[in-house]
Amino acid sequence: MKVGYAYICQNPHNRASDRDCHRAERGLVELVEPLGFDSFWSVEHHFTDYTMVPDVLQLLSYVAGRTSRIMLGSMVVVLPWHDPLRVAEEVSLLDHLSDGRFVLGIGRGAGRVEFEGFRADMGESRERFVEYADMLLRGLETGYCEYDGKFVKQPRKDIRPAPFKSFRGRTYAAAVSPESARIMAKLGVGILIIPQKPWEAVAQELDEYRTIFREVNGADAPPPIAAGWVYCDADAGRAEERARRWINGYWESAMRHYEFGGEHFGKTKGYEYYAAIAQMPPTPEMDDFFLNLQVWGTPEQCYEKVMTIRQKVGQEHFVGVYSYAGMPYDEAESSLRLFAREVVPELQRVSAAPPAVAAS
């Protein structure tokens, strides 16, 4: 199994300067390849303290120059906020700069504050995502973009630098709702799982995704990539106490950024699934639910939790978030180093071929 590191750079309630946050996070970046991780990932978000990475491809270009071996992944480029032709050019350039180490992750977004900031209609996001993704993926295979859709009227233009390596098998999409999973199967892309619902529900949706993928593409779907928030400590009690503090702190920041509890999801086309989540009031039980989807504890407990997730969804790649919610950076580094020393080598010894996942 491959193991990755995800950079999100939170500054909850502006506890520090944004500059200090990024400077400290960059210190952790320098550890990722030497500590033996297989991949480095980052996100795209705008305008709030939730995460301060407005341009994931720019950040990955920086990391490409600081590393030589690890894969570089976007989790994700939010396509409805971009011109898809520009995304195609930027993706191809990053792949050249990294000598083909880039793994493309795409998504459609769910933050109202971000759609408003870009003057984009959130209710059009699903349709725009499908058209933008279709043009982008075709362009990366053919070397040019051309499209005549409802939202995209793109005359034929070459992508330069020209793509030199297929993105088939190294393109993934974040899919939270069952409808999104079906769309990704038809696009022929893998699934990037961001844990926020019971693993049994994720497994059931993956069953349907795999069936559609096989019918449309004539081949089995690639194993999913599973992400998760990580806290690792040699002492089980201390690990639980700090995981509760920091992982619940992250969950609170997500609730604020996405405005869970608001009514807008129920009034926005394509976000019906989110509307049900948004109606759930914040409670200690909800905090525990999110906490228990994540990977925390002693090294042995962390290993078992990753393997339990693997038994349910069959991932061959686990990507952890190790610094979040205003956690002190020395604490984040200590957790990261322990996980890298005790857990990463054991996961990397696990067969790359995922286990057969029983139909739910």
Q: Per DSSP, what share of the residues sits in E-state strands of 2 or more residues? A: 15-25%
**CATH fourth-tier homologous superfamily:** Luciferase-like domain
Report the CATH topology name. TIM Barrel
Radius of gyration: 19 Å
CATH class division: Alpha Beta
Indicate the percent of residues in helices. Answer: 40-55%
- Counted by DSSP, the helix tally is 12
Strand line-up of the largest beta sheet: 1-2-3-5-8-9-10-12
Low-confidence parts, pLDDT < 50 over ≥5 residues?
none
Distance N to C terminus: 23 Å
Task: Give the overall form.
Answer: globular
Walkthrough of the structure:
The chain is built from twelve helices and twelve strands. It is of the alpha/beta class and 360 residues long. Strands 1-2-3-5-8-9-10-12 form an eight-stranded parallel β-barrel, surrounded by seven helices. The protein has a two-stranded antiparallel ribbon with strand order 6-7. Helix 3 packs across helix 5 and helix 8 packs across helix 10.
Give a quick rundown of the structure.
Strand 4, helix 3 and strand 5 form a beta-alpha-beta unit. Helix 2 runs parallel beside helix 3 and helix 8 crosses helix 10.
Topology of this structure?
Blueprint: E1 2-7, H1 18-32, E2 39-42, H2 56-66, E3 71-74, E4 77-78, H3 84-97, E5 102-107, H4 112-117, H5 125-142, E6 144-148, E7 153-158, E8 171-174, H6 178-187, E9 190-193, H7 199-217, E10 225-232, H8 236-258, H9 272-278, H10 284-291, E11 295-297, H11 299-313, E12 317-321, H12 329-348
Parallel strand pairs: 1-2, 1-12, 2-3, 3-5, 4-5, 5-8, 8-9, 9-10, 10-11, 10-12
Antiparallel strand pairs: 6-7
Helix pairs in contact: 2-3, 3-5, 6-7, 8-10, 11-12
